[in-house]
Design brief:
Elements (H helix, E strand, L loop, with lengths): L2 H24 L3 H19 L2 H19 L2 H21 L5 H27 L3 H19 L7 H33 L5 H11 L1 H4 L7 H19 L7 H34 L2 H17 L1 H19 L1 H10 L2
Amino acid sequence: MNTKNITYSAVFSAIFILLSVIAISTGIAYTLFLDVIVPIYICIVFFKLDRKQALFMSITSLTIVFFVLGNVIAAVWMAQGMIIGFICTLFISKDSSIFDDLLLSSVLATFIIIFVDIYFSTLTGYSLIKDSEEILQTVIMAVSTYNPNIILPEYYSSLVIYLSIATIPVGTVIAVYLGAMFLGNKLRILDKNTKRKFNIINQFNKYGAFLCCSKQAYRFSIVYVAIVEFIKAYNIEITMDYLRVVIMSVEVIFFYFIIKDSLSFVMKYIIIRNKSKAVYKLSLIFSVFSLLTNFRITFLLLVAFSWIINKKIGLRQRQIKILESV
């Protein structure tokens, strides 16, 4: 085994244990440390070391921190952060699109976060699902205050709950993904693929409009949503709580990326055809309003128009080629 890598591994482990002891024992930036700093740190370790050494360092450090502090709750959340960091590293280093990375990392992170929430909530004293139900009640009260005759349909109630759940893994992944790349660039440890992605994000004003999912990820997302909607339409009951919450939360994540891509292509086509900012803004406002008032039909129309546009002028492939050349 490379002596230099062993030394790096020991140093990384020592720094991690020190930071963990300070953050957990003092309570300084406790949540920030466990939810964001831990996964970013793990990403940096995986950037610098090979996977076996990085994995060994992570497990060893977690074990030492657990036995030193004896804090089971912190150990559970720390393990969650480490796994999310590992997931993000896998996708960051791949020769793939940034949106594919964020989409798939968020989906996998959802499995981990909901598993911890359902099976360890009694231990941790926090439940993401209960918080989401409280958010739904707040939304219902806000709607009823505006107009007491308005009743929020069950479909929208479900969307609110699972949207509030899905924001946690998506937000965490985005923070870790960006934080790891910027810190990795400062430390000059990014590989070729990661460096290209960093350059795209670093020049977001120039390349941000070209970000989109690959055709394969987009199609997979649509198939997944279609299957889940079929399950809902025929009232097929999913009795296992964990599986039900994961399936529905992942659907919301897929909804977001499908809508983002579809709406982006439709709006760009409107600009290409009309060359009018006024028409573009009105179309965007109308699309957002339609999504809020008649989600299903608007969603289907956006997907259909996006498919026609890409068949006609191939916007997706053009954008992907531009980003590949960075």
